[in-house]
Amino acid sequence: MIVCSLDRSIHDRKAFDCGEPALNAFLQTQAAKHQRQGFSRTFVLVDDGAASRILAFYSLTNCEIGRSSITEDDAKGLPLHPVPCVMMARLAVNRANQGESLGKWMLMDAIKRTALISQQTGVHAILVDAKDAKAKQFYERFGFKEVAENPMRLYLPLATALNAFQ
């Protein structure tokens, strides 16, 4: 399996079905457009033998949150400015592949890519919007914490994420 940037000339977006119509529609109709416009980048997991079949995907974009949005412990020592983040805007696994730990695989890939981004620009945390309680629990298992104003928006300091890899 390999994770690569979405290429609408290669990857079969129409065949992807994660069971969530909004996520399917994003991949099928908006992801490539957002890439062309510079709003986000979508990464797909494909099988080496069937490179057109998308097993899972996620999107990354830049954002920031207020310093008051993170816990006091995480805010200690930070400047009094908005906190630069990379948002993993969407994460979905094809129904046929759910239960194979591909969501974890994609989250780890997103963290690795965010670490690379942080070598070029400031990134303090990774942000996600959990679509429901089950998704929230998924992210919390990896150490994500609630943003103060929105319990479904979660963050993970990049340093914490990278320490988990070691």
Automatic annotation (TrEMBL):
GO molecular function, one term: acyltransferase activity, transferring groups other than amino-acyl groups
Entry keywords, A to Z: Acyltransferase, Repressor, Toxin-antitoxin system, Transferase
Protein's name according to its UniProt entry: GNAT family N-acetyltransferase
Reactions the enzyme catalyzes: glycyl-tRNA(Gly) + acetyl-CoA = N-acetylglycyl-tRNA(Gly) + CoA + H(+)
A matching Pfam family: Acetyltransf_7
Membership in a protein family: Belongs to the acetyltransferase family. GNAT subfamily.
InterPro entries: Acyl_CoA_acyltransferase, GNAT_dom
Entry keyword Coiled coil: no
Domain spans labelled N-acetyltransferase: 76-146
Keyword presence, Acyltransferase: yes
The organism of origin for this protein: Abyssibacter profundi
